[in-house]
Amino acid sequence: MIVKVWNDSSLTYKEIFQDELIEIPPHGFVSMPRSKAVTFLGGYRPFQRDGAQENRGEKPLRLEEDVEALAEKYDQPLKYHSSDGTNFRTKEGLRKHEESLTVKREIITGSEESVKRKKA
Questions:
Q1: Phi, psi for residue 83 in degrees, rounded to 5
Q2: What is the pLDDT of residues 13-68, one digit of tens each?
Q3: CB of 82 closer than 8 Å to CB of 96
Q4: Residue ranges making up the domain that contains 73
Q5: Residues 37, 70: one domain?
Q6: Is residue 116 included in any domain, yes or no?
Q7: Are 8 and 43 members of one domain?
Q8: What distance in Å separates the CA atoms of residue 83 and residue 27, rounded to the nearest whole number?
Q9: CA-based end-to-end distance of the chain
Q10: With contact defined as beta carbons under 8 Å apart, do 24 and 37 qualify?
Q11: Are residues 46 and 70 in the same domain?
Q12: In 3-state terms, what secondary structure has residue 58?
């Protein structure tokens, strides 16, 4: 399964991992297999003494995976139902789907003149 590794830092993240340079732009992501991403995130990052607050040892990275695909992989039952009849294995999958169905209406306001005319 492919997952996203996000860089939450304002600096480009660079690290050599398994003889390969992994470079993640600020607030960007790279895609990689889940097993590789877990190993990558769990690895030690040595301190860099360059004075930057961002380089204080811990990785400013986070993993984003499709929980619905992971639940399907482990054959979890379909137990959540959306308003349009689609079934999901996880609450997170249902929540994301329902958010995609929600229509956000824009409020259109008229100018002050048109409001005054309507009152008169």
A1: -65, -20
A2: 888 899 999 999 999 999 999 899 999 988 776 666 655 555 556 788 999 888 88
A3: no
A4: 66-105
A5: no
A6: no
A7: yes
A8: 33
A9: 64
A10: no
A11: no
A12: coil
